[in-house]
Design goal:
By secondary structure, the chain is mostly helical. Helices cover about 45% and strands about 5% of the residues. It has 2 domains: about 1-60, no CATH class; about 115-510, Glycosyltransferase (Alpha/alpha barrel). A two-stranded antiparallel sheet has the order 1-2. Strands 3-4 form a two-stranded antiparallel ribbon. The longest helix is centred in the N-terminal third of the chain and has 34 residues, at about 25-60.
Length: about 525
Amino acid sequence: MSFTVRALRLLMGGSVEIGSIPTDLDASGLLRLWWQSNRTGFLTSVGLHGLLLLVFAIWALPQVIRPNNLVLDGFSTVGPGGDAGPEGPIQINAKITPVDLPSGRGKSTTSGDSSANATEKADAAGGSAAKPVGVEGALAGRGSGGGGLGGGGGGGGGGGKAGIWQGLGVGTRPPSGIAGGLAWLARQQEKGGNWKLHEGYPDAGEPVIRTDAGATALALLAMLGDGNTTTEGQHAKSVVKGVAFLKSIQKANGDYHDHEELGRQTAFYAHSQATIAMCEAYALTGDASLKSSCERAVKFLLNSQHPKEGGWRYQPQSGESMGDLSVTGWALMALHSARIAKLNVPFDNFERATLFLESVSEQNGARYKYQPNDPLEKISPAMTAEGLLCRQWLGWPKDHPSQQDALKYLLSEENKPSWAPGRRNVYGWYYTAQVLHNVGGPEWQAWYQHTSELILKGQASGGGEIGGSWHPTKPPGSNEEYAAKAGRLYLTALCLLVLETPIRHAAIYPENEPKEKAP
């Protein structure tokens, strides 16, 4: 018994006097006494040692993806879900998940996937990830005269613009509506050569989206789209003043955006749109005084692309950020326009852009959503049309299986353009029109006839304050259209760009251009 008591005292760390231990206890009783006296310390010791073992086990495992910090900057655009963004920069932990890429391509699961690997990723139809299309004669349908850089001039082929309209079977209705819309835009130009989104006319946009650079770019795109340049056309004087305004506000780094706030929602929309307008003005005229401004604008855009993932958003991208398809589409259109103007665009930037398109695509590239981590519910016709248009610029052939699938989706009855409340989406139609025009054929002609008539019926008649323009909320459009916030000038410019689609750019699959009807 004395040996047992001494052993128990050692187990208890000397905390119990031998004399206090009952002498009639058996072994189980002694163990219960020990547990009652020492259970707190014992459990603490076990817990601490277990925690240390867990830490060492985790440390020894291979490194896995850890969430990057994502900064949401300025005012978040309304994506396919119609969610409004925050009013100031906030920082959240973004959940980064692996992205399933189309068959035949590699899988990028981290931001460390180098864009250089894009050249090794086979297209689903075979070939390199990016093969930018040819751009010679891309602006020929606008009917402007010579003096351009090869992207314009030529009068639009046999019959000029009149022949194009006749071939589509739409008569003079679209050109008449375009003339009225451009006249309204000309009346809204400020003395300084700029336009405004947020004031100066009925039903202007909200102050939060104010950007004179963006407004000026949109107005110029509509005027340039009908063949007006700095040297010719009914609105040549307006184009001259608008181009001069954009040059005057361009920053030393090449940025056209007219606000200093980093991450402002309008920033890369405005810069990309202004870059498109300036490159088109340069391509159509060959005016050497525009070249330097265009080159600096393109360089700023190239330097602002995400270094690995390939997208753009509201500020220059870094490893801590994530692009969105809405801004990226405008940025790629600017680079496409730069190529039309014979400016240098490194192939690597197109390769990285392809990586981004893969990250926002579903169904092997036949559907698209706003951002890479968005759920499938965020797929929309507008994002699908924008993603598909980017794929066309980057070299997808007309018979690409994913393109054919996407075209069926865009042409389906459920996505047929409607001027009904909540269904009008001129922003989405802007991209769909270009996609279908590039492919051509009877489906494109039928879609344009239907959609152009809808748009023309919604145009305000007469002159004065609103004649020739379109009301942003009558009917209210979809959240994705954004007209309720961006206002009358924004929607008017988009309507004009949709109407001008047949003459703005030559189809990238030219064999499908509508043939001119015999007189």
